[in-house]
Amino acid sequence: MMVGSIVLFGPPGAGKGTQAGRIVDLTGKPQVSTGDMLRSAVKAGSPMGMAAKKFMDAGLLVPDEVIIGLIEERLQEDDADSGVLFDGFPRTIPQAESLERIADVTSVISIEVPDDAIVERIVGRRMDPETGEIYHVTFKPAPTEIESRLIQRPDDNEDTVRARLEAYHTQTAPLADWYAERGLLISIDGNASIEEVGSSVEAAVRTND
Ligand code: AP5
Predict the structure, then answer these.
(1) Which ligand 1 atom sits closest to the C-alpha of 136?
(2) Residue 1 in this model has a pLDDT that exceeds 70
């Protein structure tokens, strides 16, 4: 079994992707984002990607067996031997139970943000397809020279965000208690500036060292 993995947990748009780089820099663990893996599969046009796209565009969770298969395959890679940073996984109790069998999770950092703030964050999000950098029209504007190449995710619209939030509250949020019962949950206030949240994330990682 691989050692010491961290889970970055929170609602859609909480800032998991924004903060992941800081944890990667601090720990040297690779970021494993199921959202990014699914978007790559969609871009590649694979049958799995095409099937997943229907769920993603509707703001619904992709079925557990697909996600667990992706994770099992990813953890076979050499860079996962010393643990990874899971971003956006697990999102259901069955996913967490599967993870428990294949990896040792040492902490779950939960970024807490209220629903109203989430909608504003997601609708204003822009991505740089060349670097993967995440921007926001108000909270983290991109440099003017790259503005024209920025894209908006197809699921980043107000209707889909509401569905994603509902999926989060019904299927994913119960995992916070599940991890708290195991003594692994570290909750931080995500309703603050990117820098302030970053400092709290860093403190959470160091506490757990
Ligand atoms: P995924 O890609 O994982 O999306 P998500 O969880 O909805 O998370 P996001 O990427 O939207 O948000 P984030 O927390 O990373 O926020 P970010 O840092 O970008 O999943 C997409 C879909 O794939 C799902 O809907 C589902 O269909 C499927 N899927 C993926 N994993 C799955 C799984 N395990 N099981 C089943 N299905 C799965 O920040 C958001 C914005 O806010 C940015 O613009 C950013 O600049 C800004 N921002 C960040 N922090 C702050 C701050 N502190 N203050 C102000 N603005 C901020």
Answers:
(1) 44
(2) no
Q: How many residues does the chain have?
A: 209
- State the Cα torsion 111-35-98-171 to the nearest 10°: 60
Q: Which domains does the chain have, with CATH numbers?
A: 5-29+82-202 (3.40.50.300)
**What sign does the dihedral 71-74-75-79 (CA atoms) show?**
negative
Contacts of 148 (CB under 8 A, 6+ apart): none
Predicted confidence at residue 2, as pLDDT, reads 44
Q: Compute, in angstroms, the gap from residue 137 CA to the centroid of ligand 1.
A: 16
**Using CA positions, which residue lies closest to atom 1 of ligand 1?**
35
Q: Which contiguous run of DSSP H or E holds residue 87?
A: strand 85-87
pLDDT in tens, 37-55: 999 999 999 999 999 999 9
The string over 39-64, giving b where at least 16 C-beta atoms fall within 10 Å of a residue's C-beta and e elsewhere, is bebbeeeeebbeebbebbeebebbeb
CA distance 20 to 26: 10
The rounded percent of the chain whose pLDDT value lies above 70 is: 98
**Amino acid (one-letter) located at 191:** N
